[in-house]
């Protein structure tokens, strides 16, 4: 048991060391790109409220989870516990699965909006393109973080 605890302590830094280790450093781009998606989707005028609601829910949820986990890691809440690696792996699961769905939905709506001749729809087309790009970049960050968190969990 001591070896497992020592392994998890080495793989779960605390304090500002969190910002220098991989995959923990991915929290920063997750927060930045996730926040941009959240802002862009919130400011766009989507005629399908259920679509916008789902994309907003996913982006806000992932933004809050990333921010919370980063703050907890910086504060050193894990205390070197091997169970913390399992907890973080479990918390990252929705972040690895939901954003691809939301990004695809946003991309589909943007594609449909690009085909429209309605001036109101085409006016927000560029904003939706930016939301789609940032949604896919944020998704990539979440998935990479998830994969390496699972590898860390497996080795602990």
Automatic annotation (TrEMBL):
It is found in: Membrane. The keyword Lipoprotein applies. Residues 18-154 form the MARVEL domain. It is a multi-pass membrane protein. One of its GO terms (cellular component) is membrane. Keywords: Lipoprotein, Membrane, Transmembrane, Transmembrane helix. The keyword Transmembrane helix applies. PANTHER family: MARVEL-CONTAINING POTENTIAL LIPID RAFT-ASSOCIATED PROTEIN, MYELIN AND LYMPHOCYTE PROTEIN. Belongs to the MAL family. This is Myelin and lymphocyte protein.
């Amino acid at each position: 048991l001591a070896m497992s605890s020592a392994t998890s302590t080495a793989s779960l830094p605390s304090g500002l060391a969190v910002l220098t280790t991989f995959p923990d450093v991915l929290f920063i781009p997750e927060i930045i790109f996730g926040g941009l998606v959240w802002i862009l989707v919130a400011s766009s005028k989507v005629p399908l409220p259920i679509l916008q609601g789902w994309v907003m829910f996913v982006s806000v949820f992932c933004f809050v989870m990333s921010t919370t986990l980063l703050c907890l890691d910086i504060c050193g809440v894990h205390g070197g516990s091997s169970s913390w690696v399992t907890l973080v792996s479990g918390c990252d699961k929705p972040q690895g699965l939901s954003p691809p769905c939301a990004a695809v939905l946003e991309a589909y709506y943007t594609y449909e909006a690009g085909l429209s001749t309605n001036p109101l729809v085409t006016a927000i087309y560029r904003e939706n393109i930016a939301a789609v790009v940032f949604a896919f970049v944020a998704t990539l960050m979440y998935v990479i973080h998830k994969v390496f968190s699972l590898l860390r969990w497996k080795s602990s």
